[in-house]
């Protein structure tokens, strides 16, 4: 008969794995992917290195678990922030939340966005980008349907925005501290890219009226 874990044993193992993921997140936040080791995570979690390996097959497996947890949390924050309002309000909230939260933890965000990682972790990174793009896609699609944005393919525009934002953030994340204009400039760029007309650029002055 195959051994079946009791609910109490499974709960203890799940709690231990959660503690290790939390510790790995802290290590990534100050040492990055290159600086993370199973021994460092074990020390942060207060467990033996062997215990970390019992829960996760290796560094890539552990960091993939961190990605899944952190990304779910970050995507939820963006979705909540941009859940209602006009297209401009929703996109502004999405960019502000996405970029603002990244800049508050630059080392971890750098890992999530661009630091060289193993192939299995890079697959999680692609899912991370798609999840954020879906949050933007909803706002763009609704904006188009309401006539607040010009006709466009919402999926393409959303993916382009996430890619552009990630690219712009590379410098500030790597060279923290960053300038205060980063997030406002990203918001302005996103709105221009989606076709939001800036009334100040209408080209008609009071003298010409």
**Radius of gyration from the CA trace?**
21 Å
The biggest beta sheet is recorded as: none
Could you list the spans in which at least 5 consecutive residues all have pLDDT below 50?
A: 201-209
* Quantity of strands, as a count: 0
Query: What class would the helix/strand composition place it in?
Result: mainly alpha
Share of residues in helices: over 70%
Mean pLDDT over the full residue set: 89
Q: What fraction of the residues are assigned to beta strands by DSSP?
A: under 5%
Number of helices: 9
Query: How would the global form be characterised?
Result: elongated
Element-by-element helix/strand order: HHHHHHHHH
Distance between the termini: 88 Å
Describe the model.
The chain is mainly α. The chain is built from nine helices and no strands. Helix 1 packs across helix 2 and helix 5 runs antiparallel to helix 7. The longest helix is centred in the middle third of the chain and has 27 residues. The chain is elongated. It starts with 6 loop residues before the first helix and ends in a 16-residue tail after the last helix. The C terminus is likely disordered.
Core attributes:
elongated, 9 helices, about 210 residues, single chain, mainly alpha
Brief characterization of the structure:
This protein is an all-alpha fold. It is built from 9 helices and no strands. Helices cover 71% and strands 0% of the residues.
Task: Outline the secondary-structure elements.
Elements: H1 7-31, H2 38-45, H3 49-55, H4 59-81, H5 87-104, H6 106-113, H7 119-145, H8 154-174, H9 182-193
Helix pairs in contact: 1-2, 1-4, 1-6, 2-3, 4-5, 4-7, 5-7, 5-8, 5-9, 6-8, 7-8, 8-9
């Amino acid at each position: 008969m195959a051994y079946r874990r009791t609910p109490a044993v499974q709960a203890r193992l799940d709690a231990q794995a959660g503690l290790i993921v939390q510790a790995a997140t802290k290590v990534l936040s100050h040492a990055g992917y290159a600086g993370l080791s199973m021994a460092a995570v074990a020390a942060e979690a207060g467990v033996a290195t062997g215990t970390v390996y019992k829960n996760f097959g290796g560094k890539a497996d552990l960091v993939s678990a961190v990605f899944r947890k952190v990304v779910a949390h970050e995507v939820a924050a963006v979705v909540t922030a941009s859940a209602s309002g006009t297209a401009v309000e929703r996109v502004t909230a999405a960019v502000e939340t996405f970029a603002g939260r990244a800049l508050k933890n630059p080392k971890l965000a750098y890992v999530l966005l661009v630091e060289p990682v193993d192939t299995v972790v890079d697959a999680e990174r692609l899912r991370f980008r798609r999840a954020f793009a879906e949050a933007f896609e909803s706002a763009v699609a609704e904006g188009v349907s309401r006539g607040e944005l010009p006709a466009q393919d919402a999926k393409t525009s959303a993916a382009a925005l996430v890619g552009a934002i990630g690219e712009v953030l590379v410098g500030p994340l790597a060279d923290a501290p960053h300038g205060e204009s980063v997030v406002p400039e990203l918001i302005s760029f996103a709105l221009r890219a989606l076709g939001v007309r800036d009334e100040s650029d209408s080209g008609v002055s009071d003298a010409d009226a």
